[in-house]
Amino acid sequence: MTRTPKRILIVVTNTPRYTTAGYRTGLWLGELTHFYDVVTEAGHDVTIASIDGGAVPLDPESLSAPMLKSGGTGERYADPDFMSLLDDTVRVADVAAEDFDAIYLTGGHGVMFDFPTSQALGALIADLDAQGKVVSAVCHGPAGLLAARREDGTPVIAGRKVTGFSWPEEKLAKRQDAVPFRLDEELKALGAKYSKALLPFKDNVVRDKNLITGQNPQSAQSVAKAVLKRLK
Questions:
Q1: Which of 80, 92, 215, 227 could pair with 163 in a Cys bridge, judged by C-beta atoms 3.0 to 4.6 Å apart?
Q2: What is the pTM for the complete model shown?
């Protein structure tokens, strides 16, 4: 246990479905649990928030047998106390940057719809970044970085190294025709220096000072470890 716990805000989606297809979506559960377990075992305090507050939908694909067998996710899914944390989350607009030392943006395709359009999330990320606090995201979570602007209006990610769910991975997930945009292209359009691993679905974390991003669900634990290192 750490002597001085840090306060980490985890942000999740409220979006339960795609707009142009009948697929259901939501939070990719493992991207929450893998990160949560690492940082709480290190003694840090966690608050889970969502764009609108309230209940959090889960992406059914993240509840498949292989996913639940990964990194203790199944144990968390079976734990009513843990799952109750997703029943009534705080609203992003109701939290302040001053109350946290780090933010972590989870993925799941749902974030593609409500993260980039949230002015409250964009402002929160910009405030945390301006204070030099840790800004982290995984998989589709970097979609939340798109809304963040500095005081002069420039994107927070301009000129900075990032990663996120790649287009080859999107095609392998068979969601290329259902997502509202290409995450990699939108990040680059705002001046970010996007990169990806040579092979899809390989653990990949990119660090640029206080900005830490992971490429896919397999990267959540590594993002958490990088966040812990930065918090020290």
A1: 215
A2: 0.97
What residue ranges in 73-219 does DSSP mark as E strands?
Answer: 90-91, 102-105, 134-138, 161-162, 193-194, 205-208, 211-214
Q: Strands (DSSP E) along 122-194, which ranges?
A: 134-138, 161-162, 193-194
CATH superfamily of 7-231: Class I glutamine amidotransferase (GATase) domain (3.40.50.880)
Q: 130-178, pLDDT tens digit by residue?
A: 999 999 999 999 999 999 999 999 999 999 999 999 999 999 999 999 9
- Taking the domains of the chain in order of start, what are their residue ranges? 7-231
The strand pairing partners of 134, in sequence order, are 102
Of 226, 217, 231, 228, whose CA–CA distance to 71 is shortest? 217
